[in-house]
Amino acid sequence: MSGFRLPEIDRRLVFAIVAAVVVFPIFFRLSLPEVPSTIVMNVFDSVESLPAGAMVLMPMDFDPGSEAELQPMARAFVRHCAEKKLRITFLTLWGTGSQMIERVTKDVLIPEFPDYQYGRDWVNLGYKPGMESVITVILNDLKKTFPTDVSGKNLDDIPLTRDVRNLRNYNLILSVSAGYAGTKEWVQFAGDPGQIPVAAGMTAVQAPLNYPYYPRQLKGLLGGVKAAAEYESLLIKKYPRYEDQQKYRFEALTRMGPQTFAHLAVIGLILLGNATYWINRRAAQGGA
Questions:
Q1: Do 112 and 161 fall into the same domain?
Q2: N or C: which end of the chain has fewer CB within 10 A?
């Protein structure tokens, strides 16, 4: 008995199938429901548990190369803090981080929260070189390293920072980082010695390096676009106005749709190949 064989599939057809299942969910904005993991929920709860007016330091230590992965987290963090009416201080240890701060404030904070006033509800301290040495200094004296905001205005003249002496005046450090210096340094040089809660969002490759700090030194962390999508789903569930995804950009959820369908297509092709092999093997054994 001859074995059953499917016609050989041209690799171009395989590429076309994968392309189709990627384009389809993008065109129709399809995505599967996200089930948030505990480590992501802990970040969300760290923000959600803060009272209105609490102080949040949000270091954005990344560059355009990791923007696709980290900007959705930054947007979600900013939206969440603003919904809770928390006071946000932005800064960065990366020379390219100032662009990332400017983008998230211009794209999200200013247009979506017009009542959020600069100087009263949020402030941008900009970039300072020095990596972890900057953290070590501002743990005890913020204004020694950042005497002014990004525009040159004295911090003593800004209502939000007028009474701030050091990092211990902040209720939470919410780090978004792509490497060194980043979350690990904020934990080691600020969170631990200053007893300041730290939560974070980071690239997927950086996450394993920070898992050892969870849950004692790091309240929770988001690793990669999948975790960002989980955080966005929590935000939509908690604040129903975000259900209008035509109005609000939830980039991580949008990106997870094509990724999920592509994975399913690849799995289907693998199963098809294995099923063909199994059928051929059984047929060969039967004809022996």
A1: yes
A2: C
